[in-house]
Amino acid sequence: MKKLLHFALIISLFASCKTYEIKQIINHDNEDPLVKTDTVSISSDETDYEIIIIEPGFRQWLMGTARPRGFHSQEFLESRNALLVQSWNQRNLQPQVYDPSLYELRIDYDVNTDYGYEVNYLLYNYFVYFQIKYNQQLTSFIPRI
Q1: What's the pLDDT tens digit per position in 73-125?
Q2: Do 35 and 55 contact (CB within 8 A), yes or no?
Q3: 40 lies in a domain?
Q4: Domain that holds residue 129
Q5: Mean pLDDT across the stretch 30-37?
Q6: Quick one: pLDDT band at residue 142, thresholds 50, 70, 90?
Q7: Would residue 83 count as lying in a domain?
Q8: Of 99, 115, 127, which is closest to residue 44 (Cα–Cα)?
Q9: Residue 84 belongs to a domain
Q10: What is d(CA 118, CA 43) in angstroms, rounded to the nearest whole number?
Q11: A Pfam family matched by this chain, by name (predicted)?
């Protein structure tokens, strides 16, 4: 009787475990429209680098308020991004001082790597948007719109 009880328990555990296909877990019909429209993703076959920004309002701000592509040189964007990423990562390492919900992830940005104009443009403009939206100042440089 005891063995039968253990066997029934094991069978019920296996029966209660169910695997799902990804399409069953993710319901695209009910996906938040903000996530669809406020995700900016840039990737290139020429480089192996990608930037994905998921921030409500960023795409709209980028298209309507940010300075247009070509306004700043790639060298300008790279130098600003190096400073901004360094400040961001320092804040990421200090969750007791800075709001950890703002600086959740570390940014892996190598100043010796050519990420191309588009990645640098989007990263720089995200920092500008972030500083304005959350009233943060990452560096002594105050971005102008």
Answers
A1: 999 999 999 999 999 999 999 999 999 999 999 999 999 999 999 999 999 99
A2: no
A3: yes
A4: 27-133
A5: 47
A6: low
A7: yes
A8: 115
A9: yes
A10: 9
A11: DUF6146
**What is the distance between the alpha carbons of residues 21 and 125, in angstroms, rounded to a whole number?**
37
Residue 9 lies in a domain: no
Count how many domains the chain has: 1
CA distances from 134 to 42, 88, 128 (A): 24, 13, 10
Residue 144 has a pLDDT of: 61
Name the token pair of 16.
Answer: 């209660």
The two three-digit tokens of residue 130, written as one number: 């972030």
* CA gap 133, 58 in Å, rounded: 10
Taking all residues of the chain, what is their mean pLDDT, rounded to a whole number? Answer: 76
CA distances from 98 to 19, 89, 90, 132 (A): 40, 11, 10, 16
Q: Evaluate whether 91 touches 98 at the Cβ level (below 8 Å).
A: yes
Residues 6+ apart with CB under 8 A from 99: none
**71-82 tens-digit pLDDT:** 999 999 999 999
Cα 110 to chain centroid, rounded: 17
